[in-house]
């Protein structure tokens, strides 16, 4: 299948990724793409709105959050099918945040993943509404499509709102904006990343585990795992900005250098940042052990997060 | 109490509103204000974000949606306390929609209810995020604060997302934008209003009834009631734009005249619009009868919606 091959090629050249993980990631990505686009296609909504929602939802992301949710669910004996609605909803929340982030009043980005951003492809008003639409629809999908008890559904909705809202991702956005024109220290940097990126990653891991049937203790250990995973993700982002391949990461290298934004390499040097990342990877693996899933695919995914080349 | 008197004065001069309804509305408004601001105050979020969310949430709205939800709940024997979390959440969704509507890329309004709009008072990025924050927080409040069964909570979340999202209010926004530069006929006009305003009003009525313990049949009749109530609201909005008191409605009279936007008075003449409104009021009252609440406060509220002077 051509499309599946294309997906595979997206992961193939990534350093240190084993062939079986490659296959795992590309298969999951393909299945999640199908699910997300399926949910948008079946919406009874104005065509232009659907087109704008679909445009960003299919704009070639790696689906790391939904894949992480699936992997976490599978680690406790669940299946991809069980998490699909929650995983698609989470990816929609991530997509909405990218659309709003790219707006002229926010980061003012014209290109994302090699394609025009939503407000360039459509217009600013449509981009704002497409983001609003994706965010709102995500809650509907969990409420109406997720095949778990209503008690769990309510809890998964509460946690998603908590992770994505004014205590979570939206807070991270605000702090990130405020930090742009001043130097942040390591602690402030971690706070911003934990809110802006980490909270949704944590949701992916804990929601997957909850749907898969993990115990409360196991979920508590996974929260710690997810905390480090978020930091690993961010350190690697900063490292790629210094030494990545612009063609692979889809943006020019050194863009962090030209603004005042604090990054790990700026604070610790490139060597120090790599060391910090290895420390986080060790801590993440330790948490997986405590959560009783030290030999699951989550270990490979942790390595992948830390060594991805895009 | 001074604040309560202030609230009362907001309703007092409204035509044809009985003294007891005035008292009812102003008391409920006061209680809803307290609840909404309370929910925002207790958020652990960056100060600037909270300030922006609070600014628009307390910007002097009449709280028609939450009051309607309370009235509907009480009509079936429930209490204000029972609906408070859902009513506050609904008002937050309404507030978010106003913040995003006012943005330069949308309606580009600098003044709302006599005060600078959110993006003027703060900045555009903060306004976008304050809107995102209110929308997301609303789902968290229903999930975690509403004291009804989890089955009902899931259903109330699903319905709110349905009413506010890409099939509902967001769809109405998109259609409204598309209609701005061409003439819409009565049917298109009603579709836009039904989505843009009507769906949240319907939610107010049906969610209140569900929380209060109405039967499925009663809720079906209330959906029809809410449909007409939404149209009554909109016709009166259009009529006020022609013959309202600019000081009371908080914006210049005749602003619809200067753009191409379709309105009831433009399509039917002022007399025709008033006639149409009376027809809708009759139909709304008939639906209340079918829902078994023909002598409830909802009847007075219907009259109030149709004859408000602001």
UniProtKB/TrEMBL annotation, chains A, B:
GO cellular component, one term: cytoplasm
Family: Belongs to the FPP/GGPP synthase family.
Coiled coil spans: none
One Pfam family named in its UniProt record: polyprenyl_synt
Taxonomic classification: Bacteria, Bacillati, Bacillota, Bacilli, Bacillales
Species, as recorded: Sediminibacillus halophilus
UniProt superkingdom: Bacteria
Protein name: Farnesyl diphosphate synthase
GO BP: terpenoid biosynthetic process
PANTHER family recorded: FARNESYL DIPHOSPHATE SYNTHASE
PROSITE patterns recorded: POLYPRENYL_SYNTHASE_1 (PS00723), POLYPRENYL_SYNTHASE_2 (PS00444)
